[in-house]
Amino acid sequence: MVSPKKVAVLGFDCALTPLVDKHIEEGILPNFAKVFKNGVVCDNCLVPYPTITPPNWTSIATGAWPGTHQVTDFWRHEPGTTPDGAHTHSNFNWDNVEAESIWEAAEKAGKKCVVMNYPTSYNVHKKLKNSVVVGGAALTPGVFMDEDLAAKIMGVERKPGTSFKYSFCSQTMVSTEPYPMGVKVELVDAEGWTNVDDLGDDPLEFSFRHPFTDTVFDPEPTTWHVLVRDPGEGYEDLTLSPSKDFSQAFCTVKNGAWSKAANAVIQLKDGSSKEIRFMVKAIKIEGDASEVTFYVTHALPTDGTYWCHPNQAAARLNKGDNVATNNAGYFNLALGWIDEKTWLEIVSIHYDWLGDTAEALLGEGDWDVFFMHSHPTDYIYHHLMTDLDPNTCASPERYEEAWDIHRELYRRADRYLGRLLDLMDDDTLVILISDHGATPDGPGVNTYRVLNEAGLSYKHKVEDAEWLQSLPANVRGAFRALQETVDTSRSKAIASRACYVNINLKGRDPEGIVEPEDYETVQREIIDAMMTYVHPKTGKRPFALALPKKEAMMMGLWGDQVGDVVYAFWPEYSGQHGNILPTSDYGLSTLKTLCVYYGPKVNVKEGLRLQRVCNIVDVVPTICYMTGWPLPEHAEGAVVYQMMKDPNQRG
Questions:
Q1: Are 536 and 456 in contact (CB under 8 A)?
Q2: Can you tell me the distance from the alpha carbon of 114 to that of 364, in angstroms, rounded to the nearest whole number?
Q3: Which residues of 430-448 are buried (b: 16+ CB within 10 A; e: fewer)?
């Protein structure tokens, strides 16, 4: 039994221990089974509140509560501005983190870290000298969910309602049929193609200008060409090319098939160029060419610009046949571009690219600390949680179908986990972790409406931004709320972000109307309005709690990024997670999180289901205790001694 020589924290967002157990018993998750059965499963691992992505992954990396690191929500309020949605942006920038990470602390001990696709880690590379950071500005590499960060990269002013930005660009849907936010084309007889062995019968073509949607770059207008051929029994394949010279084609794909990864050089308006990498799927090629539809994935610049630090490390990450995918295709599924089968294929590509990337970065053994995150195990619950529960599913048929999809997604996660475990020596401490759980959808609660009915808040109406249509309904509602502006001349209270209400306070807020001496009185008015509110559909009270800010300290919340009132719903209301308490259970699921410690030769017990309550803020202190590495300066969690064979053995 030795102290760990290396540490690997493997993050599967929103992974649910009870459902992993279910699939282990079914025999379909051999790699999860290996870790569960030979490690310590923490059955009562809690997370900070709110139960949402950026704050909780930040807590895992720092060992600090949200009040200390000040990433207190999915969204961040800009201090000194009115705390409504117009002055809020997504929270994926390490520059805003006010606590030291384990990566910074480990480097003090001469350790090398690899941080891969870890939410909010973007810009932590500026504090590291001997480490590699991939992604971190969103849930997949090359995506900037933080509008403020994207605006700074582009050198422009951030505006309310800004959509995601990309390095290099978002995905594209090209079709002879109309798709929302897609590129519509028309087939014509093919002419002028060269170096084609066989044009087949009646070849067709079209050309389109690639939109390079939401790129952070400024590309020249770029036209690509598509050849559609009939080898004799109907049209069945398409060729995508930057010119009508077939020898220069990016790929040729048959109906329903994916291409391998392809590269293209894109000219920029400043005279430079960027090589990008992408894949293509022929979604549908009708035999009579009545419909031709294909999908081009999100593309990354191969030189690592804005997604890999240091940039030169990216040269190792573009060797396989897979590519990074924007949010593993989930928003495309919600938009209706793709069906669930194609979505699972994109999930596989996502996991395979992450696996390729991990092997490239870790394969030679030149690392000490590895933190990674993957998100499909969260997307599955946003998409299917309600269908997975027999009490909320619309039909028995959909219930069975939903579980089949769930199994397939977890099989892909398990295969990816196996690839990671193959990179770990027996003296590596491996921690499987998530940031929260999930519950089925319930009746929605409009916090603004609660405040409005109590005469506390009023809004100006705004039109939805077009890009909102690409988001799932529950996420769309949250982002819509962030665009709305409050009538500050009349509002004493402003609903803010996932779980806060701010008082429109004179002397603090630019257009405040509440006198400082009335602060606590208005807090009580807000809390009374929430706790006495009756939901019109259920006839019951949906709020589980509403607390003054000073009382929220017991939940790990304090500081400028916490609202004046903190609230939460009972788990049968709202959607999956966020403003649902971390101790909540409902139906088949729970907000408690996955947490498993494993290491064949290190000081970890085998086959234990630990029942003591622990928290994800305990991960970093436990790592540092076991390895003897320096503790991050702001760490506040406890050491989970009970998972060790010898709790007195220190690194």
A1: no
A2: 13
A3: bbbbbbbbbbbbbebbebb
Strand, coil or helix: 535: coil
For the cut 70, the answer to whether the pLDDT of residue 224 exceeds it is yes
Task: Write down the mean pLDDT value for the chain.
Answer: 94
The CA distance from 43 to 104, in Å, is: 30
3-state secondary structure string, 417-434? Answer: HHHHHCCCCCCEEEEEEC
* Per-residue pLDDT at 621: 98
At 334 the pLDDT is 85
State the pLDDT at residue 484: 66
Q: Is 232 exposed, middle or buried (0-12, 13-18, 19+ CB in 10 A)?
A: exposed
Does residue 216 surpass a pLDDT of 80? yes
Per-residue pLDDT of 472-519, as tens digits, reads 565 566 566 656 678 999 999 999 999 999 999 999 999 999 999 999
- Count of domains for the chain: 2
Residue 438 DSSP SS3: strand
Residue type, 484: E
Locate 328 and state its tokens: 């593993």
At residue 459 the predicted structure's pLDDT band, cuts being 50, 70 and 90, is confident
Using CA atoms, how far apart are residues 450 and 432, in angstroms rounded to an integer? 39
Instruction: Give the mean pLDDT of 279-291.
Output: 97
Q: Could you tell me the two tokens for 571?
A: 């788990």
The residue-averaged pLDDT of 149-165 equals 83
Q: Which residues face 252 on adjacent strands?
A: 239
Question: What is the C-alpha to C-alpha distance for residues 292 and 186, in angstroms, rounded to an integer?
Answer: 9
| Residues whose CB falls within 8 Å of the CB of residue 359, separated by 6 or more in sequence, listed in order | 419, 423
* pLDDT at residue 161, as a whole number: 57
Structural domain of 506: 447-574
- Among the residues of 102-261, which ranges form H helices? 102-108, 147-154
Asked, for residue 66, whether it belongs to a domain, the answer is: no
Select from 328, 330, 268 the least CA-distant residue to 303. 268
Question: What is the reported pLDDT for 475?
Answer: 58
189 in a structural domain:
yes
Give the number of other Cβ atoms within 10 Å of residue 196's Cβ. Answer: 17
Q: Using alpha carbons, select from 616, 585, 632 the residue that is nearest to residue 18.
A: 585
Q: Give me the long-range contacts of 305-310 (CB less than 8 A, separation at least 24).
A: 305/167, 305/274, 306/142, 306/144, 306/153, 306/167, 306/216, 307/134, 307/135, 307/137, 307/141, 307/142, 307/167, 308/132, 308/133, 308/134, 308/135, 308/141, 309/125, 309/132, 309/133, 309/134, 310/125, 310/132
Say what the pLDDT of residue 574 is. Answer: 87
Residue 327 lies in a domain: no
Which of 533, 559, 574 is where one domain is finished?
574
Q: Of 574, 594, 617, which residue constitutes the final position of a domain?
A: 574
Beta bridge partners of 414: none
> In the β-sheet with 188-189, what is the strand arrangement from edge to edge?
188-189, 204-209, 223-229, 237-241, 251-254
8: Cβ contacts below 8 Å, ≥ 6 apart? 369, 370, 371, 372, 420, 423, 424, 428, 429, 430, 431
Residue positions counted in the chain: 651
**pLDDT given for residue 287 in this prediction:** 95
Question: Considering only 116-120, 291-295, 398-402, 476-480, which range has the smallest mean pLDDT?
Answer: 476-480
SS3 state of residue 289: coil
Which of 384, 360, 376 lies closest to 412 in space, CA to CA?
376
Token couple for 513: 């109307």
Is 557 domain-assigned?
yes
pLDDT band at residue 589 using 50, 70 and 90 as cut-offs: confident
Which pLDDT score is estimated for 255? 96
Dihedral sign from CA coordinates of 88, 89, 91, 94: negative
